[in-house]
Amino acid sequence: MKHKGRYGDYGGYYVPEVLIGVLEELEEAFDRFRDDPAFVAELAELSTHYAGRPTPLYHAKRFSQHVGFRVYLKREDLLHGGAHKVNNTLGQGLLAKYMGKTKLIAETGAGQHGLATAMIGALLGMETKIFMGVTDVERQSVNVHKMKLCGAEVVPVEGATGTLKDAINDALRYWTAHVTDTFYLFGTAAGPHPYPTIVRHFQTCIGIEARRQCIEQAGRLPDLVLACIGGGSNAIGIFAGFLDDKDVKLIGVEAGGRGLRTGQHAASLVAGTPGILHGARAYLLQDENGQVLDTESVSAGLDYPAVGPEHCYLKDTGRAEYVAAEDEEVLETFGLLARIEGILPALESTHALAYVAGLKGKLDPDTVVLVNLSGRGDKDVGIVEQHRPLT
Amino acid sequence: MRSYRDVFSELNQPKRAALIPFFVLGDPDFDTSLSLVKAAIDPGADILELGIPFSDPIADGPTIQKADIRAARSGMNVHKALDLIKAIKAYRDIPIGLLMYYNLIAHYGTQRFFRDFHAAGVNSVLVADLSIDDAEEVEGPAKAAGLDTVFMVTPNTAPERMKRIAARTTGFIYTVSVLGVTGSRDSLSNSVESLVMQLKTLTDAPICVGFGISKPEHAVAVAKAGADGVIIGSRIVDMIEANLGNPEKMAAEVSAFIGEVKAALSTSA
Ligand SMILES: Cc1ncc(COP(=O)(O)O)c(C=O)c1O
To answer: What element of type H or E holds A268?
Structure first.
């Protein structure tokens, strides 16, 4: 491998020997094609006409009025597929094509990354297999159906809880046996090097656009930038645009589940300790013996016990701050945004909005707050209905 | 304490391959696990390869995943693994290689882990999810503790890399016979013999072959290709799974199987 893929002490590529060769091949291909004019042009063309970039920045006036400061939403929910995930799947899918690979595999939690991979598999004519925990297959059945419509095979994974962690385990195992022709299209800015770097690269468009749009619309840089954190891809995508703007405060919002005290959550940065899972050193939810803990969250896409290495580094250096929002506040905020803005946010993204809602009345009215609305909540309507039945 | 070198040199006149069964410590529970290991030692296991259950064993197929779950549910953890290893060593001074996932070691403290397990009677610790590229994270502590180093070579390891791996090996090279995870297989991968022969031209380090070795014929074929040891894991763990609730039958099957492989390796020598 040419690079170590470290962010401070975090990251790296702690994988079995059998995977070293393919990761090396991936690193080399990424270095070679990321700035290749043909690759860049093809990605730009598809980002615009297939996926729908640039996405709007929307000044949510009624939500702003509600909280008492200026809130702008980066509308990744308007992208094709309904989430930021397509930015990454287009990028990696093209990389797979340029590498001459013919098969794609991916893990998925909420099904958004699985769907975004299935779309690109269809677009590029590649055979696609999606690994998904059995619990998630059940709670995100609409996305399962969509993936199948796009021609992907969905492989249900049992594992400990049948969630994202188990899906990644099985995708890695499958990859081990199919390294020669299969491209593993990893869904978040975590996992072994070079994935955190690759996913960050393809998601940076969010931050670059948002920075420009915020200056245009609000007349200046934001004071706060917020995003939810599953593995950390939508967050690093938007943070990347502001890392050098020292006065812009960056806040990542993790899944507080049923409350940090209950232990039933997925807040690895807030409540975890450094460990090694899925090829990287990162903050990890683990027990006193180093066994990885089960996680709990109303949103499947945040139900993951580890997190991307760059966020660990940003936490330790103090450049970004990480907090958690609990299921109850998230469900509350989902309803609020629907009622006063007519927007159904993905439960994942709603974590960031819930934290902002919690700041109601606490910030100066001139404060400019930018929230990454990473996805739309159509997929979550059933879950919300279960928890908050309409009368 | 008996070393790998003792075993390999004793098996040299005439040359036979070492028989190395793998168990997940505590599968299905502490006491049964101990009696199963004894049932493998008695008919002629030369070295033991032992794992401590981990929640996310990405290099393992369904058989060993289930063993990890059984063992963890029975309460096995790093501390109890030390006790179980001590009990095994009290029964017989047999060399032991641990096969680990890195987080369990890092969480316990790498130096402390190597020191405590060496004291319990372990000869080497192979970390499934740590490659030669990060060897410096474990080499120092291993040497300081008096442990041998063992690293993996897989069918897709480049020759230049094989040499680097061999150069850092003081125990044996764990040669993975297939592209894939652990699990019983009906037939031996057709590339394994050439892989062993290739390694033999590159290094004098002992070559032990594992992953998918499921039958006496597989062991014999690998030995004929020049392997110094054969590691049999999932096939043995299958016997545990098939006889849950009947520890005597488990032990009898393991013992008979080890005896059969041992005999096949001896007559083919
Ligand atoms: C809409 C949406 N936002 C966020 C996430 C969390 O992932 P990440 O932290 O990589 O952005 C997901 C994951 O499924 C998602 O679907």
So the answer is: helix A268-271
Closest CA to ligand 1's atom 15: A301
pTM for this one? Answer: 0.97
Fold of A13-46+84-195: Rossmann fold (3.40.50)
Best of B103, B127, B234 to substitute, by most chain A Cβ atoms within 10 angstroms, is B103
Tens digits of per-residue pLDDT, B43-86? 999 999 999 999 999 999 999 999 999 999 999 999 999 999 99
Domain extents for chain A? 13-46+84-195, 52-83+203-387
Domain borders along chain B are 4-263
| Domain A52-83+203-387 part of CATH 3.40.50.1100 | yes
Choose the CATH number for B4-263 among 3.30.110.70, 3.90.180.10, 3.20.20.70, 3.90.230.10. Answer: 3.20.20.70
Q: Please name which of B267, B259, B236 lies closest in space to residue B42, comparing C-alpha atoms.
A: B259
The mean pLDDT of chain A is: 97
Task: Residue B246: count other Cβ atoms within 10 Å of its Cβ.
Answer: 12
Question: Backbone dihedral region of B232: left (phi > 0), alpha (psi from -120 to 50 degrees) or beta?
Answer: beta
Amino acid type, A364: D
> Which chain B residues have a beta carbon less than 8 Å from that of A190?
none
Phi, psi (deg, nearest 5) at residue A75: -85, 65
CA distance A195 to A335: 35
List ligand 1's pocket residues with C-beta within 6 A.
A 83, 109-110, 112-113, 188, 228-235, 301-302, 346, 348-349, 374-375
Nearest to A264 by CA among A228, A297, A299, A229: A297
Q: Is A68 left (phi over 0), alpha (psi -120 to 50) or beta?
A: left
